[in-house]
Each structure stands twice: as structure tokens, then as C-alpha cells.
Amino acid sequence: MHESPWLNLYSYPREADYERAVPLGPTWYRLDSTVRAAEATWSLPPSLSSRQGALIYLSLGSLGSADVALMQRLVDLLGRTGHRVVVSKGPLADDITLHDNMTGEGFLPQPAILPQVDLVITHGGNNTVVEAFHHGKPMVVLPLFWDQVDNAQRVEETGFGRRLATYDFEDGELTGAIDELLADEALRSRMARIAARMQAADGTTRAADLIERVALTSRPVTRDAAPA
């Protein structure tokens, strides 16, 4: 991984960021989140807003959602629950058939949706995981590759959700994990407190300030000059 001598930024919640055996250098800064602002509004359609049940967001990213067989299995399983589900169907949207407790499109404005849901089912990409923390949402993580595997394990180990075997989970494992997380009021309260802290930290503004400091001083920005 390239390391800049001037400034290095990474985005990850403090509560899931393990202590390192070898600390990062002084030009590294952790930003709890740098969540993009919602560029579009989104409202739950009347067909679902009038129903009972928790609201779940299902997204496996553009690559994961292209696995139609996996997506359809998840959709069919969730269709047998009493929950309401928002499905990000991905590039092969026309090949995925939703049930009457669901709504979805090929691409959805995730930043506008996450604040409204109760739980996220995700592939565990860094962006979605950080956004879920930013909005205080527990996760069921079905990792596929790369950073997703590490994120899934961290979510499991730190108690903010469950990691399942993406292609080998039993139906009851998924529905049981969902029900367990939705019923965990202590977890919901804990994540709400974390979300409030992360939002107040305003990582995007802090990132801009640090970058501006490099531009104005033409010097490395180290943690002894600006608190981490």
C-alpha cells in the first residue's frame, strides 16, 4: 500500500478498528466516517409503509448482486418472513423477482435509504459497513472477497452483527440472525450512541481541513501537529 509522506486518511469506526501490532506512522489519520450526503430523496412506497414488520435493506454491491442465483435465494427467503425489504437489485435487476413484501430497483440512493431501515444485509464492502455504523444499523454480512471478509469478521467479533457463510448458510441461520439482531435493544442503543458520535465528528469536514493544511503549509501533517 502506498503511503504518502504528506498525509494519509482512512475511514473506519473506532469501535471496530483493532489496535495494530505496528502502529501507523504520524501522517495517518482515522476518520470514523466520511459518509456522502444523500443526493436524492427516497420514500417507502405505500404498499410497504402500510404494512407491519421491520424494514431491512438488502445490497450485495454491484458485483455480488450480479450473482442472480444468490440474490434470488435471499429474496425468496426474505419473502417468507414478516419483514419488509428494500432490495438493491444491481445490474441484472430484470432477472430478480421480488415478493409483495419488497420494493427495489437496479440502483437505489443508499445514503437516503439507510437512515430509514432497521437492519442491513450486506456483502461487507467498506463503504456500506461504514455507512451502516454511521446510521446505527446492525448488519448481517455475507462476504464475497477482498475487504469484505475482514469487515465481516470484525462485525461478528465486535458484536455489531453476524457473519454468515455466503453460499453455505442454512435458511434458519439467516432468519435467526435477523430476528436476534432486531430484538437486541441493547445493541440498538449502543449503535445509536456510536452513530451520534460519528455524525458529530463530521469526518468529511475534518478530511477537508487536513488536506487544506497540507496545501497551505506545503508540509506533512502529523498527529503531533493536529490531534488524531
How do the strands and helices of this protein lay out in sequence?
Blueprint: E1 8-11, E2 28-31, H1 46-49, E3 55-59, H2 61-64, H3 68-78, E4 84-88, E5 102-105, H4 110-113, E6 119-122, H5 126-134, E7 139-141, H6 147-158, E8 161-163, H7 171-183, H8 185-201, H9 203-217
Parallel strand pairs: 1-2, 3-4, 3-6, 4-5, 6-7, 7-8
Structure description:
- The protein is an alpha/beta fold and 228 residues long.
- Helices cover 39% and strands 14% of the residues.
- It is built from 9 helices and 8 strands.
- The protein has helices at 46-49, 61-64, 68-78, 110-113, 126-134, 147-158, 171-183, 185-201, 203-217; strands at residues 8-11, 28-31, 55-59, 84-88, 102-105, 119-122, 139-141, 161-163.
- A 6-stranded parallel sheet has the order 5-4-3-6-7-8, with helices on both faces. It has a two-stranded parallel ribbon with strand order 1-2.
- The longest helix is centred in the last third of the chain and has 17 residues, at 185-201.
- It is elongated and about 60 Å long.
- The two termini are 21 Å apart.
- The mean pLDDT is 94.
